[in-house]
């Protein structure tokens, strides 16, 4: 619980390598996550070599931490292994569809969070890379992912060389609904976002970005409709190409 | 780490209720998970009332544990709240697309795994319900989920009334690849699945199901092509209806 509550994303790492035994302990912890029907339809690709890390760094929008972290772990939805097993055992796999992709993605993401927490409990720092789904096609090429395999998230891992504060969160009642979903009234939105909007960090961002509201920084700069539409098409193309549509 | 390694799914619960303070502690732990750009595009619906639990039980293929667990938690990809905020702040949200759905689903799933582990660390038992994505449309109706919200997984939660053994897993080298993906040769598949196939439980399942191989139990009985195709169409329909396609 302490590990969960103290999570902060780490983007600066010491040069110190991660011992293979510790790495295996963390990966083993990953495998203990719940998985649909115990099919274990995911794979974990652990990249440490400089040349491959550099290729991944390019794919992940050249974010510094990808090159500087000693270990980059790509978590993949993977029906390839399961399909091969079925075919070798006189069974006809029916997993070339969207539901199967999503089932495998859930497996991979629960494993990733176990790996993140296991790493943090051993004093390592982690950061998730959201760019994984944007750049799935490049990552497939770099890591030789066969049909049936799609990368869904990535963790960079290493010994922290910074100690940032906890990230702000919306109040608990912003994200929790009791019994059923209660839709938000305009005054709910105002009050749930009030603390976030009054933060010093927000004021600074508004000035730097020359925007009137924090929401505009998200819609106009960080996560634009244009990018989202382009990345959606790319990701749906990847699902088709990898045999899930 | 101990909590992670000792995870087993619990399907039988004591009648003992979960204290509201403990529940909030667990949910708070959920909110500490990493979230894309700190957008927190997920919601958690906590259902405890008998009538609603019964409706959810019907949706989740009448699995006993849904009715008997004191708490059922539905984790949703949720851009509704964020979109409302944008619109109230003179910002034009561009999140009505597949990438945004998947981004929000990742948020929801990392939160779910934090909640699962936090619960287990407080001596509660949990089980994930894979039926959530199959029956998303019914769940949307039961829980009044508005446009922009899609349920992606569910946890049942309570004090365990059973202590099952750890579930078997494939060997670590079945799911981990170093540097790049190394595709499996026929002999790899044989050796990686050997232990699982020789288990007493497997022999028993083959007899009960009158099948030649364990893989056939998956393809012919548990996760059939027919079901997967039907549930894929339903899920893609839900994504469209909820404004993500």
What low-confidence regions of chain A span 5 or more consecutive residues with pLDDT below 50? none
| Helical fraction of chain A | 40-55%
Class of the domain at 2-165 in chain A, according to the CATH hierarchy? Alpha Beta
What gross morphology of chain A would you assign? Answer: globular
User: Order of strands across the biggest sheet of chain A?
Assistant: 1-2-4-3
Largest sheet of chain A: 4 strands, antiparallel
**CATH T-level fold name of the domain at 2-165 in chain A:** NADH Oxidase
Radius of gyration of chain A: 20 Å
What does the oligomeric state look like here? homodimer
**Number of helical segments with 4 or more residues of chain A:** 13
**Which class do the helix and strand fractions of chain A yield?**
alpha+beta
- Element-by-element helix/strand order of chain A: HHEHHEHHEHHEHEHHHH
Instruction: Report the CATH superfamily of the domain at 2-165 in chain A.
Output: NADH Oxidase
Distance between the termini of chain A: 39 Å
Can you walk through the features of this model?
2 copies of one chain form a homodimer. Chain A is α+β, with helices and mostly antiparallel strands and 245 residues long. Chain A has a domain at 2-165: NADH Oxidase (3-Layer(aba) Sandwich). Chain A is 52% helix and 13% strand. Chain A contains 13 helices and 5 strands. Chain A has helices at 2-5, 20-31, 50-59, 64-68, 80-88, 98-121, 131-134, 136-142, 172-175, 186-197, 200-209, 214-222, 225-241, and strands at residues 42-47, 71-78, 125-128, 149-158, 176-178. In chain A, strands 1-2-4-3 form a 4-stranded antiparallel sheet, sandwiched between helices. In chain A, helix 2 packs across helix 6 (98-121). Chain A is globular. At the A-B interface, helix 2, strand 1, helix 5, helix 6 and strand 4 of A face helix 2, strand 1, helix 5, helix 6 and strand 4 of B. Strand 1 (42-47) of chain A pairs parallel with strand 5 (176-178) of chain B, so a sheet runs across the interface.
